Amino acid sequence: MKMSGLFLGMLATTLSAAVAVGQNEIAKFDPNMAIKNAVVTNGVKWIDGTALPLEGRAFPDTEHYYDRLPANVTTNVNGGVRSMKHHTSGMLFRFVTDSKKLHFKWVPYNAGLSMDHMPSTGVSGIDVYRLEEDGKWRYVATGRIHDAKRGGSLDLGWKPGTPCLVNLPLYNGVKSFTLGIDPEATVSALPPRQNGVVKPVVFYGTSITHGGCCSRPGMGFVNIIGRELDVPVVNLGFSGSGKMEFEMSEHLSAIDASCYVLDCVHNMTVSDVKNRYEPFIRNLRAKRPGIPIVMAEQCDREGLPKNEKDKLIDALYRKLIAEGWKNLSYLPKTAMFAGDGEGTVDGCHPNDWGMMALAKSYGNSVRRAMILSHPPKDGAFRFVHWNIGHFALGKGKNTTVTAEASAARAVEYREKIESLGADFMGISEYDPVFDQAGASTTNLLFAAFPERVEGPKNDYQCNAMFSRRAKLLRSEVVDYEYRWQKCYFLDNVFQIGSKDVHLVQTHLDWMIKPDKECFRLAQMRQLIRHFKDCPYVVISGDFNVYGAGDFLVFTHAGYTLANCGKAGCLDTGLASPAMPCLQRCLDNVIVKGFKVSDVFCDDDYYELSDHKILGCTLEFAD
Predict the structure, then answer these.
(1) How many helices (H) and strands (E) in the chain?
(2) CB-CB neighbours of 244 under 10 Å
(3) For residues 450 and 424, what is the distance between their CA atoms, to the nearest angstrom?
(4) How far is CA 165 from CA 72, 117, 208, 519, 529, in A?
(5) pTM, rounded to two decimals
(6) 259-263 and 201-205 as β-strands: parallel, antiparallel, unpaired?
(7) Per-residue model confidence as pLDDT tens digits over 68-98
(8) Maximum distance among all Cα pairs of the chain, rounded to whole angstroms
(9) SS3 for 170?
């Protein structure tokens, strides 16, 4: 799309201005300005909203103070966006005060306070939350509104020193907003978030992203994600109007964001997706290189299959991954709603129940994209092991999977892998050759993992390790001294914090005959000898044991088992008359120098592998 020099110049001005408020208005909050703008009447000190710490306002050069887009949005963007930029969806005040009472007054931008499928509390009301001692935001009250000219009001008793969050209207704007506190009380901005996230997550999308049609502002899924992940958000959802015009990519890229979520497919035609999506996302990535982007399929109610638009963006995702794009995630529609059919008000727009389900699915995508998955403590990380079980449905070049069938199946594997939220993932029996064409699927399946190591392919024996959080320092393939198959272990050294950690992936000899037990025991002892002087070791793999007792050689050497002793004796193999493994622990994560917690065994394995998925959180013991 060609653009005039005047338009590009205007956008350049917007870019430079928007970057300056990458942390929104909080960085600019001045308590002296709040006092200067205060007016005391009838024993209440009133502070104008423009002097309060505000999040969700990404542009300083707006037509009206509470607008979501700059004043220079042109007619290259549809009229719905230009009109609904005045809505305050996603905007919120976050502050702390020593006042014993809080009073809120606001006047809406539009006279229409509600819609036939969304109440005035959600369209034009406000929500108040308080921060509890457990770090969670808890709902307090909703400010209702009955008359647009008189505006809305809400009065609350308040515990001094308690942080406060106020969500502004979703489908209406705000002409004016004032906060009333005790005459001698003060207001302060909250300190930076403990997780270090200061740049907003930017959501660009449809009426569903906009907030339709939940009962109150705090229940919009974008606002829920902001509270649950403790991140600032910018909501650029526009009802019926999120159509990915190229100019909108310029406005999004003008925001100094921590992550972008693209959710426009519902508002676009097939032609729009074909012609607009790729130029849009390429421009966004060019202007904001390295910033995570989440591509979402059309947000439909449960049970609807992929449509042509979904297939187009899925193909685009795979194309970009094949080009080497990093920090690119994909959210399928199957992961969006709760699955019980009760999540909408009209078969399309989510109610509160649907918003909670969307907050979980979109929130998990953002969490993984921003690597917020499992860093609750310094040095803690989430480790997942999966024997992917003859991934090619055959052995390498002998697979019978066609290229067309593999494309669909690869999506299943990718969605499962991305749903795990792993910081590190060890894979046994991994074959990167997925189909008859001999194409590797590593880039598609493990797009979220920038560091990757694949060992040699010996029959079905192939070990691999993937990392999204730490730098790989070195890697070594070590053959077992005693073996009757071509077994080996892959020793990968990663720098996690200030420590060098050995993340080891292996597969021991197959146990089809009892007389092979001596090989497995020798291989386990070789592992112990090899890492005797290494303080931090994680060994994951398929150990082909008969039961928990076979791992005693590790526990006697000071190792901790994530499988046995932490989550019980897990059936991690596929039971059959030929292989009775109801109590076998084939797979395990075995560690030295770490505390093990949050062990899980994923039962949703049988369609993708003949082994279950085993994961745990690891924290340095010292």
Answers:
(1) 15, 28
(2) 24
(3) 11
(4) 30, 26, 22, 62, 56
(5) 0.73
(6) parallel
(7) 999 999 999 999 999 999 999 999 999 999 9
(8) 90
(9) coil
